[in-house]
Amino acid sequence: MTDCEELNLLKQEVLKASSREALDSCFKKWREENLLPLRKKLQNTSDKEEKRRIGLLFKELKESSQKIYQLKKEELSSWKNISCEPRKSFRIEKKEVDYESVNYLSEVMERVSNFIEKYNFDYLEESEIVRVSDNFDSLLIPENHPARATSDSFFLTSSGKKKLSEEFMLRTHNTTSTLKILEKFKGVNFKGASFGTVYRKEDNDPTHLSQFTQLDLVWVNKNLSIEELRELIEALLEELFKGFEWKKIYCLRPSYFPFTSPSFEVDLMCLCKGDEDCRLCKGTRWIEILGCGFLRSEILEKTHPNCCALALGLGIERICMIQNLILDIRSLYENNFKSIVKEK
């Protein structure tokens, strides 16, 4: 079947869809039958010319199918059917509006989105309420870990006579999404990304929040090394700090996370050049910005037993603070227009 025939088949199925649920179902089925096998063929092809041909075909099919899906999605949107009565009289209050401004956090999120799209990461959005087992046990976090205590995390309890069949909580990290991505692409090499809100039961202070945003990346392949990890880090830093005066000089140092081995943390060189009074680096010249490593084989054995997986996680607010030399993370969420936007 040619690419035109595949797209025509998708159009025919999409036209039949009378609801968002039906549209999502037929689009998912089409992707599984056409795009995923083509991507698998692309990954398993060693010939450069053939790989290039399949890659161009995959890109064209992916972009064209997404356009077909979006057009039908807009057509089915309920807001188009809403009608309202025009007001007979109204009053406009004159207010001063600052134009050409951008929210600090929105800018970081946009850069993250650009990175995900540029390097072909598949995006997955996961619920903020997760099973306790997924948040801890599945990621090999030991029973005596401090985060398991009720003083450190938000656990959900049953109300009234209705009892929960399992224990649930607000996720303490976004790595729970990585488990879902591994299941979704079982047996297939892929790059996956997710970002969203995570929760910690701690007091808000200049460097900590009880609720913040975290980005997680995972890259699964048979042959991955620290060299590829460095390339991933450098590409991400380039996208995040492009246009800022930061020189993107970083240090990769050994660390520990229960679900990765080996594990590393990445420190970015501070602009202060070792000033002891610097509140960003506290005189050390280095600012911790992200954690990374190789997922342990125990996590991969059910979905990708013969593969390696690079994993990386960072806090969006922390990047925002470093980019804009913000000393108090709380100012990002205070109702102060001047502290959260800047001129373009």
Automatic annotation (TrEMBL):
<keyword id="KW-0436">Ligase</keyword>
<dbReference type="Pfam" id="PF01409">
    <property type="entry name" value="tRNA-synt_2d"/>
</dbReference>
<keyword id="KW-0067">ATP-binding</keyword>
<protein>
    <recommendedName>
        <fullName>phenylalanine--tRNA ligase</fullName>
        <ecNumber>6.1.1.20</ecNumber>
    </recommendedName>
</protein>
<keyword id="KW-0547">Nucleotide-binding</keyword>
<dbReference type="GO" id="GO:0005737">
    <property type="term" value="C:cytoplasm"/>
</dbReference>
<dbReference type="InterPro" id="IPR045864">
    <property type="entry name" value="aa-tRNA-synth_II/BPL/LPL"/>
</dbReference>
<dbReference type="GO" id="GO:0000049">
    <property type="term" value="F:tRNA binding"/>
</dbReference>
<dbReference type="InterPro" id="IPR006195">
    <property type="entry name" value="aa-tRNA-synth_II"/>
</dbReference>
<dbReference type="GO" id="GO:0006432">
    <property type="term" value="P:phenylalanyl-tRNA aminoacylation"/>
</dbReference>
<keyword id="KW-0648">Protein biosynthesis</keyword>
<dbReference type="GO" id="GO:0005524">
    <property type="term" value="F:ATP binding"/>
</dbReference>
<feature type="domain" description="Aminoacyl-transfer RNA synthetases class-II family profile">
    <location>
        <begin position="106"/>
        <end position="322"/>
    </location>
</feature>
<keyword id="KW-0030">Aminoacyl-tRNA synthetase</keyword>
<dbReference type="GO" id="GO:0004826">
    <property type="term" value="F:phenylalanine-tRNA ligase activity"/>
</dbReference>
<dbReference type="InterPro" id="IPR002319">
    <property type="entry name" value="Phenylalanyl-tRNA_Synthase"/>
</dbReference>
